[in-house]
C-alpha cells in the first residue's frame, strides 16, 4: 500500500482496516453499522478501556505498528482475563496524523487482530479521526460464562498469593532499548509484544481465586491495589520470585538490581491471583507470598517483611512520568 | 477545585472523576477494578465507540467541558439507540494535558454522567493519560431486550423513510458561532449539546423498522449509508422536511440555504428509520421520503428526484476536513 492516511481518506482507511479483520461466532454484527452486536451468553458483559499514546506508551523507532497493535490489544484483553472472563470483542478508537504512511494503521490493525485471535476475541468496531498524536484507545469486552467475577477486593488473611506469566521482562527489555541496544532479543521482544496468560484468568476463577489482577503497573504496585481493596497486608518472599539468569546478566551490565524489574516492572501483563491455602495450583502458577491481617492502619505490600522502597505505582501525571 | 491535572496527579484525578458518578441497577461492578461488569439480560451486547478531539470536534472557547461531555456521550449513546437498543453503560478513555485546569475533566465527567442518566446508562470505567491534545474516546454499550438489531441493511423498495429529533440545528448553531455570534441561543445550544431522541430507537424497532441510523454525518449522507447497505434508492421530499422559521432567518442573515443545514448537518443525532408502508407512526416521527428499487448501478439518495450536490459525507482526512 502506498501513500499517507490523508491520501487514502477516512473511508478508504476504514475500508482497508475492516477488510483485514476476522470474526468469531460471538460476533453477531461486526464493523460498518451504527454499533456492533456481540454475544453475551452469561447475561453480563465485562468491559475495560485503555489508551496508548505515541511518545508516552510506545515509540515508532522501537516498536513496529504491528507490535503496538499486539500490545494495545493485549493490555486490554489481559484486564478482561484478570476478572476471570473470556475476551470476546474489541473496539478501536484511533487518532492518526494525515501525513502518517497508510501502512502504519493497517499494520497496527493486523497486530490488534492477531492478538485478539490469541485471546479468542475479534475486532467488532471502531472510529478513526485525524489528529497530531497517534492515539490508540481500545475497549475490550468479555464473557464470564457463569463464573463470579474475581475482583481485587476478595483476598483474606492467610490466602496465598501466586503469579503466572512473565514478570520484569518488558522492563528489562526497555532498559536494554533505552541504552541503545537491541539484544538480548527475548527481552526486547517481551517489551515490544507482551504475552499475557489469558487462559490463566478464567482458570484461576475456576480454581477459587479470591482476588485477581493483571500486572500492568508492576507487581508490588498492583498487589498494593489488591491489598487496599481487600484490606489485607501482602508479604512477598523474594526467594520465591523467579529472576532468570539472563535478566541478572542484563542487570549487571546496566547496573540495576534485576529484582527491581521483577517487582516493579509493568507491561508484561502477568496475572496475580490470591487463593485459599488449600488450593492445588497447576505448575504454571508460582506461589510468591501470603496475605495477612493488616499490621498498621493502611494495608501494605512488603518484600521479605520490609517495604520495597522503589515500588511506588506509576503515576502518568507525576514528575517522573 | 484548584490546580491542574498535573498537580492533582493521575490517581487523584481518577478519584475525583469516579467520586462524581452515579450508578444503575445494570452496573454490577463499576470503576476501580481491572474491568467493569454490566448486565446484558438479552445475552447480546451492542457496542460502539467514537473519538472527539479538541480543535477538530470541539473548541474550549465555544463549548464548556460539561457540554463536551454531554455531546461526547450523546453521540455514542445515539448509536446504541439507533440499533434499537437501550444504552446501559459507557467507558471513557481520556487524554488531557498536565497543565489543563483540573476542573475541566471533572466538568466533562459531570456532562458525560448527566447525558448517560438521560439515556438510562452509567459510566462504568475508563482510563486517563497525559498528552498534548484533549482526546475524549467513549465506548457505549446497550441491551436489545429481545428486539432484533435494526441495521442499515434492511430497507426495501416501497418502504417509507422517517425521522425524529432535530435536524440542522447544530449546523445552524455552528454557523452562528463561526461568525462570532452567540445567538439565537436555541441553535447555539443545539450545537453545544445535542438532544438525541434515545427512546425513539427502541420504539422504532418495536414499530417494525427495517433499517435505522442516527444522523451524525448529515441526513443525506447517513441515508446514503442505508441506501448502500440495503441496495435501494431513497428519494426525499424537501417539502416534507421541517425548516423552522428561525433557521430560515439565520440562513438569510449568513447567506446559506437553511435546507442545506437540514440535509447535510450532522451532530444533532436525530434518528432516521425506514418502515413498511403500513406502519402507524407516532406523531413525533415525520415521513420525509421513500425507498425504491435502484435506478442505476449504485444506490443513491435524491432530493425531489435530483441529486443533492452538496451532500457528500464528512471525510475526516479529506482536504476540506
TrEMBL record, chains A, B:
Residues 156-244 form the PurM-like C-terminal domain. The keyword Cell inner membrane does not apply. Keywords: ATP-binding, Kinase, Magnesium, Metal-binding, Nucleotide-binding, Thiamine biosynthesis, Transferase. Mg(2+) 5 binds at residue 217. Mg(2+) 1 binds at residues 49-50, 127. Substrate binds at residues 57, 267, 314. CDD domains: ThiL. Pathway: Cofactor biosynthesis; thiamine diphosphate biosynthesis; thiamine diphosphate from thiamine phosphate: step 1/1. It holds the Pfam family AIRS_C. Residues 298-321 are annotated as: Disordered. Mg(2+) 3 binds at residues 34, 79, 214. It catalyses: thiamine phosphate + ATP = thiamine diphosphate + ADP. InterPro entries: PurM-like_C_dom (IPR010918), PurM-like_C_sf (IPR036676), PurM-like_N (IPR016188), PurM-like_N_sf (IPR036921), ThiL-like (IPR006283). Mg(2+) 4 binds at residues 34, 48, 79. Signal peptide: none annotated. Mg(2+) 2 binds at residues 50, 79. ATP binds at residues 126-127, 152, 216. GO terms for biological process: thiamine biosynthetic process; thiamine diphosphate biosynthetic process. One of its GO terms (molecular function) is magnesium ion binding. Its EC number is 2.7.4.16. Reaction mechanism of ThiL seems to utilize a direct, inline transfer of the gamma-phosphate of ATP to TMP rather than a phosphorylated enzyme intermediate. Belongs to the thiamine-monophosphate kinase family. Catalyzes the ATP-dependent phosphorylation of thiamine-monophosphate (TMP) to form thiamine-pyrophosphate (TPP), the active form of vitamin B1. This is Thiamine-monophosphate kinase.
Amino acid at each position: 500500500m502506498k501513500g499517507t492516511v490523508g491520501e487514502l481518506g477516512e473511508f478508504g482507511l476504514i475500508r482497508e482496516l475492516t477488510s483485514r479483520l476476522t470474526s468469531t461466532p460471538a460476533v453477531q454484527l461486526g464493523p460498518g453499522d451504527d454499533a456492533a452486536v456481540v454475544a453475551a451468553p452469561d447475561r453480563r458483559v465485562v468491559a475495560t478501556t485503555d489508551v496508548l499514546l505515541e511518545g508516552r506508551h510506545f515509540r515508532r523507532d522501537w516498536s513496529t505498528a504491528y507490535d503496538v497493535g499486539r500490545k494495545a490489544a493485549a493490555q486490554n484483553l489481559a484486564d478482561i482475563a484478570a476478572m476471570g472472563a473470556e475476551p470476546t470483542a474489541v473496539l478501536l478508537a484511533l487518532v492518526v496524523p494525515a501525513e502518517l504512511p497508510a501502512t502504519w494503521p493497517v499494520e497496527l490493525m493486523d497486530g490488534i487482530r492477531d492478538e485478539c485471535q490469541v485471546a479468542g476475541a475479534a475486532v467488532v468496531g471502531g472510529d478513526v479521526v485525524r489528529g497530531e498524536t497517534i492515539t490508540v484507545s481500545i475497549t475490550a469486552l468479555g464473557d464470564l460464562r457463569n463464573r463470579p467475577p474475581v475482583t481485587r477486593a476478595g483476598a483474606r488473611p492467610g490466602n496465598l498469593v501466586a503469579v503466572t506469566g512473565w514478570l520484569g521482562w518488558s522492563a528489562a527489555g526497555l532498559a536494554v532499548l533505552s541504552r541503545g541496544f537491541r539484544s538480548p532479543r527475548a527481552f526486547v521482544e517481551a517489551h515490544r509484544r507482551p504475552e499475557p496468560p489469558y487462559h490463566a484468568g478464567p482458570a484461576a476463577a475456576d480454581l477459587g481465586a479470591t482476588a485477581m489482577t493483571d500486572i500492568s503497573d508492576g507487581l508490588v504496585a498492583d498487589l498494593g491495589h489488591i491489598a487496599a481493596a481487600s484490606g489485607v497486608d501482602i508479604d512477598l518472599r523474594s526467594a520465591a520470585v523467579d529472576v532468570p539468569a539472563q535478566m541478572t546478566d542484563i542487570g549487571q551490565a546496566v547496573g540495576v538490581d534485576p529484582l527491581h524489574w521483577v517487582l516493579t516492572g509493568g507491561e508484561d501483563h502477568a496475572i496475580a491471583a490470591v487463593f485459599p491455602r488449600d488450593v492445588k495450583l497447576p505448575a504454571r502458577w508460582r506461589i510468591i507470598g501470603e496475605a495477612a491481617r493488616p499490621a498498621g492502619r493502611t494495608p501494605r505490600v512488603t518484600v521479605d517483611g520490609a517495604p520495597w522502597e522503589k515500588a511506588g505505582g506509576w503515576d502518568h501525571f507525576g514528575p517522573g512520568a
